[in-house]
């Protein structure tokens, strides 16, 4: 679904491959940034894959909290007691998947995640969270922990909850954009240089 303030795709009525691959990727990333702001966007919830201790992939949905297209950095929040936190502490590599069905646009990003919990960064974000969002971190049991039904709603205090609240920042190293198009799908891959530069090229879909 697309929101009313979603940036239009400049390549919708023509072959995007008539333009530089970097422009195509930038337009897709602008769309992802707007998805972070708009709760109704398909890009508001993304899949994020990590590596389990056994080497197997682990995948789950998270809310995309912010996306900065220039540095290609995105933010999501989690609980430091979760499996994904342990996995990312062991190996910072992660991959995200987003698909906007209305725009027929798939974005895949690979990069490394920095975890911020119980520090100045997480405290600043915590202060700006609405009460409902803070409640998520008040469960007495760690996410994924086996528990009897009668204890499932037990809570901890807000100070302790804040210590579990984690801001996760993923910095992209690779971006892969696929646009489904009746006249021929179009796909481009970009590699970031860490300084705002992007080397991009078209690939066969
Ligand atoms: C729509 C949706 C949004 C979600 N958003 C988040 C989120 O922002 N952060 C989070 O940690 N888990 C979120 N979850 C829950 C995760 O998908 C997952 O079930 C949970 O975090 C445990 O994952 P883990 O055991 O791999 O750490 C969301 C689930 C759904 C269905």
From TrEMBL:
Query: One GO molecular-function annotation for this sequence?
Result: pyridoxamine phosphate oxidase activity
Cofactor or coenzyme needed = FMN
**InterPro entries for this protein:** Pyridox_Oxase, Pyridox_Oxase_Alr4036_FMN-bd, Split_barrel_FMN-bd
Question: Could you mention a single GO BP entry for this protein?
Answer: pyridoxine biosynthetic process
Q: Which UniProt keywords apply?
A: Flavoprotein, FMN, Oxidoreductase
Q: Record's superkingdom?
A: Bacteria
Q: Where is the Pyridoxamine 5'-phosphate oxidase Alr4036 family FMN-binding domain?
A: 38-116
Record-linked PANTHER family:
PYRIDOXINE-5-PHOSPHATE OXIDASE, PYRIDOXINE_PYRIDOXAMINE 5'-PHOSPHATE OXIDASE 2
What is this protein's record name?
Answer: Pyridoxamine 5'-phosphate oxidase-related, FMN-binding protein
């Amino acid at each position: 679904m697309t929101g009313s303030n979603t940036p239009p795709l400049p390549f919708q009525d023509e072959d995007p491959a008539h333009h530089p691959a970097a422009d195509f990727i930038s337009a897709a990333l602008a769309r992802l940034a707007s998805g972070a702001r708009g709760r109704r966007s398909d890009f508001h919830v993304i899949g994020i894959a990590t590596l389990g201790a056994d080497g197997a992939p682990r995948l789950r949905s998270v809310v995309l909290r912010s996306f900065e297209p220039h540095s290609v950095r995105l933010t999501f929040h989690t609980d430091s007691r979760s499996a994904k936190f342990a996995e990312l502490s062991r190996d910072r590599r992660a991959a995200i998947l987003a698909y906007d069905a209305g725009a027929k646009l798939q974005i895949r990003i690979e990069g490394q995640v920095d975890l911020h919990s119980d520090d100045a960064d997480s405290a600043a974000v915590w202060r700006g969270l609405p009460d409902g969002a803070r409640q998520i971190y008040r469960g007495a049991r760690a996410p994924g922990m086996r528990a009897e039904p009668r204890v499932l709603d037990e809570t901890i205090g807000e100070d302790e909850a804040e210590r579990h609240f984690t801001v996760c920042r993923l910095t992209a190293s690779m971006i892969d954009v696929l646009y489904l198009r009746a006249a021929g799908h179009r796909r481009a891959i970009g590699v970031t240089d860490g300084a705002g530069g992007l080397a991009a090229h078209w690939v066969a879909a």
